[in-house]
């Protein structure tokens, strides 16, 4: 998690009016805090600082007095002649779209490209100018080219899910599937339109489908939703429309590489209880170049966000880069035996919109007798958008869906999901819907425990059975401030306005350690950071390092009491400092009676 902090900013905007002898400068004051920045990913809005509100009031009075003058300025700008092209290009220089592309475009071209980029999250302007059948580099391990496959393989239905996709991107996905899947294996393509408002996805797409179907009747089917159902239910819609023995469920911004299908269909033919993911490469959102990604398994963290993992040790020992990679979960796109998908329970349609369904499917398949694999010899290039412009913040949906997974499949380890999201385990206030049918499915399929899954399938995942309290940590001296990990580039904890997001997550363990920030998900990730007394200063140090160096990382703490280092006997306290943004800093000093409280207590906090 990247934590970017922005302080008060004074922006001076000078407007030069054509035909006027004076330069009129308008001053605006903006207040921006990093915890609502897009890199923060989470979405709560904190209470405003009183001093900033007072400053804001003064500034608004100034702006009010300038209202009339500003209207005059706007009128002059509208009447002024167009500026030279060099001046017009200036507003576009800040966009990431033009960091590695587009320098040769005219100002009008840049304007068009930027408008489309803001709408789609990728360079649709460039996509519209690329051929649908463009060549891709063959990024398979060299041994893949020497593999042979059975002559008799099952047919596949390829399903593309989309909402307001750029037409050229969707058509390139379809075209690459048709060109790079053997004709005798590709039975049909199914397009699931989740109620797009984009007009070109209606008439123009219909024209394309009709043209293809005039040569191959019924080859492309279009399923259109009358309302937006979200990615999860859209995938189920695509599965229901499919008729081939195998169904491939994909996003509609991908390009298939050569030889992708045969390895997948071979593995499913050998064992229909395998769910397969291809290996993914990246289509860069700005210049559409193909970026090779290293081979990886697919897993998740304790918030159930999907993530790439190093292949397991057993795979490396094979010394065979073409071998299937055992994977704990799925990133999203996958191929499955159509009938087995129904037997295993499809996707959880009680989930909302997006997020967690791929993790839930991976957990369910493993616990209920199936398996998940990533195939190095099957490669698909996928656009990773710069942003998702046409949808709301997905965090609330992912959190709700994660709690459904936790309650149905994770047994005693469901606490880890609540802790990672900083949610009370009792009376969370989040309605996860009816899960009785999913619990009945688990019982019907006679599935194994989540502990078995962690030990047998995902041993890299860290377990946190020693956490006895978690949440935000507040001091009685200033209750609107919370302990915060501070900027990632430093190891100094700070006090910051309470927002309850990841940088303010605090975990107190039975061994009297205080972890601050994200719960490290796997043993391959950086360790958790512990609060440590370093030369009488509070610091955040990797817990394993602090323990190995016998540093002062153990703290006595009881709810509503002081936080005292067991070895140095110094207390963690607040000290006024007018130079800091919120007026207080963290210090270690002789205990003066300051009290701390943490949001959620699981077991007694004995001092």
TrEMBL record:
<keyword id="KW-0325">Glycoprotein</keyword>
<keyword id="KW-0808">Transferase</keyword>
<comment type="pathway">
    <text>Protein modification; protein glycosylation.</text>
</comment>
<feature type="domain" description="Ricin B lectin">
    <location>
        <begin position="470"/>
        <end position="599"/>
    </location>
</feature>
<dbReference type="InterPro" id="IPR001173">
    <property type="entry name" value="Glyco_trans_2-like"/>
</dbReference>
<dbReference type="GO" id="GO:0006493">
    <property type="term" value="P:protein O-linked glycosylation"/>
</dbReference>
<keyword id="KW-0333">Golgi apparatus</keyword>
<dbReference type="InterPro" id="IPR029044">
    <property type="entry name" value="Nucleotide-diphossugar_trans"/>
</dbReference>
<dbReference type="Pfam" id="PF00535">
    <property type="entry name" value="Glycos_transf_2"/>
</dbReference>
<dbReference type="GO" id="GO:0004653">
    <property type="term" value="F:polypeptide N-acetylgalactosaminyltransferase activity"/>
</dbReference>
<keyword id="KW-0430">Lectin</keyword>
<keyword id="KW-0472">Membrane</keyword>
<dbReference type="GO" id="GO:0000139">
    <property type="term" value="C:Golgi membrane"/>
</dbReference>
<dbReference type="InterPro" id="IPR045885">
    <property type="entry name" value="GalNAc-T"/>
</dbReference>
<comment type="similarity">
    <text>Belongs to the glycosyltransferase 2 family. GalNAc-T subfamily.</text>
</comment>
<feature type="transmembrane region" description="Helical">
    <location>
        <begin position="9"/>
        <end position="31"/>
    </location>
</feature>
<protein>
    <recommendedName>
        <fullName>Polypeptide N-acetylgalactosaminyltransferase</fullName>
        <ecNumber>2.4.1.-</ecNumber>
    </recommendedName>
</protein>
<keyword id="KW-0479">Metal-binding</keyword>
<keyword id="KW-0735">Signal-anchor</keyword>
<keyword id="KW-0812">Transmembrane</keyword>
<dbReference type="InterPro" id="IPR035992">
    <property type="entry name" value="Ricin_B-like_lectins"/>
</dbReference>
<dbReference type="GO" id="GO:0046872">
    <property type="term" value="F:metal ion binding"/>
</dbReference>
<keyword id="KW-0328">Glycosyltransferase</keyword>
<keyword id="KW-1015">Disulfide bond</keyword>
<keyword id="KW-0464">Manganese</keyword>
<keyword id="KW-1133">Transmembrane helix</keyword>
<dbReference type="InterPro" id="IPR000772">
    <property type="entry name" value="Ricin_B_lectin"/>
</dbReference>
<dbReference type="Pfam" id="PF00652">
    <property type="entry name" value="Ricin_B_lectin"/>
</dbReference>
<dbReference type="GO" id="GO:0030246">
    <property type="term" value="F:carbohydrate binding"/>
</dbReference>
């Amino acid at each position: 998690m990247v934590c970017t902090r922005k302080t008060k900013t004074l922006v001076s905007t000078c407007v030069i009016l054509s035909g006027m002898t004076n330069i009129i400068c308008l001053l605006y004051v903006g207040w921006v805090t990093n915890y609502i920045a897009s890199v923060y990913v989470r979405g709560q809005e904190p209470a405003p600082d009183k001093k900033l509100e007072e400053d804001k009031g003064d500034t608004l009075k100034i702006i009010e007095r300038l209202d009339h003058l500003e209207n005059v300025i706007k009128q002059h700008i509208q009447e002024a002649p167009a500026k030279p092209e060099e001046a017009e290009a200036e507003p576009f220089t800040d966009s990431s779209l033009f960091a590695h592309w587009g320098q040769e475009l005219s100002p009008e071209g840049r304007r068009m490209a930027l408008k489309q980029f803001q709408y789609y999250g990728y360079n649709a302007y460039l996509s519209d100018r690329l051929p649908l059948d463009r060549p891709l580099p063959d990024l398979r391990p060299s041994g893949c080219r020497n593999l042979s496959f059975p002559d008799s393989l099952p047919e596949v239905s390829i399903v593309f899910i989309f909402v307001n996709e750029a037409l050229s991107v969707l058509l390139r996905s379809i075209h690459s599937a048709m060109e790079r899947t053997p004709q005798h294996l590709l039975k049909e393509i199914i397009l699931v339109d989740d109620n797009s408002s984009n007009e070109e996805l209606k008439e123009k797409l219909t024209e394309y489908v009709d043209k293809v179907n005039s040569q191959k009747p019924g080859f492309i089917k279009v399923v259109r939703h009358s309302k937006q159902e979200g990615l999860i239910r859209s995938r189920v819609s695509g599965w229901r429309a499919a008729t081939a023995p195998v169904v491939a469920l994909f996003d509609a911004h991908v390009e298939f590489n050569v030889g992708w299908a045969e390895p997948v269909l071979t593995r499913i033919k050998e064992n229909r209880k395998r769910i397969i993911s291809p290996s993914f490469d990246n289509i860069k959102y700005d210049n559409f170049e193909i970026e090779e990604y290293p081979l990886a398994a697919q897993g998740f963290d304790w918030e159930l966000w999907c993530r790439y993992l190093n292949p397991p040790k057993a795979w490396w020992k094979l010394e065979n880069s073409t071998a299937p990679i055992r994977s704990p979960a799925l990133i999203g796109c996958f191929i499955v035996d159509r009938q087995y998908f129904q037997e295993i329970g499809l996707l959880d349609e009680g989930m909302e919109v997006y997020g967690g369904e791929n993790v839930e499917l991976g957990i369910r398949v493993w616990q209920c007798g199936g398996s998940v694999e990533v195939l190095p010899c099957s490669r698909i290039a996928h656009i990773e958008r710069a942003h998702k412009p046409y949808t709301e913040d997905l965090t609330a949906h992912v959190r709700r869906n994660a709690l459904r997974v936790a309650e149905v499949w994770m047994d005693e380890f469901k606490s880890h999901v609540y802790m990672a999201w900083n949610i009370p385990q009792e009376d969370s206030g989040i309605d996860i819907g009816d899960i009785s049918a999913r619990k009945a499915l688990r019982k019907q399929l006679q599935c194994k425990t989540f502990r078995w899954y962690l030990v047998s399938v995902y041993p890299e995942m860290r377990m946190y059975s020693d956490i006895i309290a978690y949440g935000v940590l507040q001091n009685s001296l200033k209750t609107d401030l919370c302990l915060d990990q501070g900027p990632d580039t430093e190891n100094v904890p700070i006090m910051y306005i309470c927002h309850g997001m990841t940088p303010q997550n605090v975990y107190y363990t039975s061994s009297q350690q205080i972890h601050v920030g994200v719960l490290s998900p796997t043993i391959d990730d950086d360790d958790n950071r512990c609060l440590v007394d370093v030369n009488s200063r509070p610091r955040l140090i990797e817990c394993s390092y602090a323990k190995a160096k016998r540093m002062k990382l153990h703290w006595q703490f009881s709810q509503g009491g002081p936080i005292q280092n067991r070895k140095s006997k110094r207390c963690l306290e607040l000290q006024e400092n007018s130079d800091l943004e919120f007026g207080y800093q963290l210090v270690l000093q002789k205990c003066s009676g300051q009290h701390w409280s943490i949001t959620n207590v699981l077991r007694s906090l004995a001092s």
